[in-house]
Amino acid sequence: MIVMSTAALAASMLIRASAAEKLTTFRYQMVKNYSGPSFYQNFDFFSETDPSNSFAKYVDLTTANDSGFAGYTVSPDWPYPVYLGVDYKTITPTGRPSVRLEGRDTFNHSLIVADIRHMPYGCGTWPAFWLLGQGLKWPKAGEIDIVEGINNQSNNTMVLHVDSGVSVANLTSAYNGNTQMAGTITNLDCSLDSAGSTGCAAKASWNNYGAGYNAQGGGVVVTEFTSRAITIWSFPRNNTPQDILDGKPNPHPLYNGSHWGAPEAKFVPSINSSFDEHFFNLKPIFNTAFCGPWIDEGWNTSECASLAPTCTEYVANNPAVFEGAYWAIGGLQVYVPSTTSNVGPAGYNTTVVQPISSYNKKRRGQLTDFKAY
């Protein structure tokens, strides 16, 4: 029998604890920080007809700047919040002018942190913050809807879209003794060829969308994309984990869960497969659409039905109600895996730092002259 001194035992425990931390800590490094005066240098203004068949008329950079649809807003506690608004002064029978901002960079395995201080809301609105795969016809490279909803919705909807062959497990309830997600899975089939445009979806557990969300000062939304899971956390403004605020996000310090608490959505393939062949080269997008299939199909039974016979009539003829239909974005940070350990959450290759590929699109001029609103 070997007897260790108290000091030796303590040292041994410390070494073992350090080794365990090295094996179970899963760290990220920041590769992009979209914020402040340089924010617009990393995005393009989409000004074509809306592929979603909405009533939005997306405008180009010059129009957005000159008309006051894009710029910076005033905040007492944060420098340069990005402002993305819409036309709220004009009757617009052919579509309401709006903004769709698309990132120039694309990402694969990553952790994306969005500081959202205000978001569009109200009858007829269909705003979204999402990731869209590049290089193939939609949705062969995938789509991840991180923040999305319509009308006066109060709880965020999170959705995945792929072309075929993907369903997700229902992790709404406790799984293997752990709470896997706080939100509720509402559809399991992600595939266009079998589920149509619905996608696999989850509804958030709290009021993290619309007017109620804005009244709280918004919050922070974090999306993690790995081979085996797409996970979305949503934190209230005053309850954001300190490691995120410090720029050192670490959602997986231990195997048995996250100190961030249960995510609002956790999408895991229902069979032992990888998301990698269905989601790749993802670019971030912020937009505010109006009407469109999601709203139009349910307008007559919605809380907005008494306002006008159709959504397009309401949106076209009531500009003033859309003054609050704007995004105020504190910043958007992108992190990629960075660790020398070969141990991490199941299915995650922790030895490879995923490269950032630049989306092949003509770069526009410097936007240092953007107005502040």
TrEMBL record:
Alphabetical list of InterPro entries matching this protein: Beta-glucanase-like, ConA-like_dom_sf, Glycosyl_Hydrlase_16
Signal peptide, first to last residue: 1-19
Domain GH16: 43-303
UniProt-listed PANTHER family: GLYCOSIDASE C21B10.07-RELATED (PTHR10963:SF24), GLYCOSYL HYDROLASE-RELATED (PTHR10963)
Record keywords, A-Z: Signal
CDD domains in the cross-refs: GH16_fungal_Lam16A_glucanase
Superkingdom field: Eukaryota
Cytoplasm recorded as keyword: no
UniProt GO molecular function: hydrolase activity, hydrolyzing O-glycosyl compounds
Protein name: GH16 domain-containing protein
Matches recorded under Pfam families: GH16_XgeA
Biological processes, Gene Ontology terms: glucan catabolic process
